[in-house]
Model the fold of this input.
Amino acid sequence: MNRKFSDVFFKHLVSIVALFSVLALGAILLFVFAQGSMPFFTSTSSNIQLVAQRIDEITVNGVSYYNHSTFINVPKNANVISVSFPSGDDIETLEINIDHNEKDAQKSLSFKYSGNVEISYPENYVYTVSWVSGIAALQKRIHIIIPEPPYSFGSFISGLQWRPSRDKVYGIFPMIAGTLVASFGAILLGVPIALLCALFMAEFLKPKFASIVRAGVELLAGIPSVVYGFFGLMVIVPFVRKTFDIPSGNTLLSAIIVLALMILPTVITIAETSLRAVPLSVREASLSLGASKMQTTWKVVLPHANSGVIAGVILGISRAVGETMAVILVAGNSPQLTINPLASVRTLTSTIAMEMGYAAGRHSEILFSIGVTLFSIILILNSLILWYRRRIET
Done:
């Protein structure tokens, strides 16, 4: 009775935990995808916003605000914004006319004002009106923030420029290219080495020594990525700089070498486990037909374990594409489109890690979009590899 009760209890417990895990994962994916899609369907705000700086009392379209330290919202469809505030014995006035038909944000506002005023356009969709005084630090300012329209998905994917602070340009094609080139370079360099190591451990090394090497490889798999990045920064980057006589060793080549080192333990472990799982009878059948040990390894054992080997390659690609800290330390982080291995590049993950801490508004939403793009790239690559595996198995 107690055993039956415990079996039922743990069955329901596992079901509940699994259900909540799936729901939590679904909620996370839904949140990320929702945030990532917002820049392409919605504006940054439904209103024009004003921010008063060093102005204690201000009147906007007949409404007075006192010591207002946050945004003052003006309806998006307003044609005129009238602003006034006391300045000494005078009343400073500012009238802003809005042209809703003008697509260029820098030309959509026109100003009429009193006093000695300077108008600047410090960044896209933001105007700054300054009342000049003798001390620049005491100047009264009003910042006018125009809602950014939905961003073009085509410009996002195919754009070659990344200038989020000044011009609000978010083109990630150079970072997509940098991610794919670095990842595939690491796969081309690391997978053959990993496969040879796995074959040597599974087929040619004595079991006692193989267990020692296996423990060392598994230990390498547990080293944090930042340690690999620090090793690359202190060893690989100077090596690349001296070998090729270039000003900086923070290059695509350095990133490829570090990523290749990082995926080695994962691919070796999974491939070697798959090779050892091949039945002994398969090897004996091949040897009995006159095949040598090497022929049996390459022609029989390896094709028999191709499913596990491909699984290791998939995990290696996923780790290479999704790696962040190590790439930040060695790649140079320049968002430029290049296939020159001695040039600096930036990856998608590096962009998210470096800029999420200070990003706000549209910039922050675009970083979520980069996360969705990264997820899609990994999903597509893994799907292609699985499709290829099913094709060669049939």
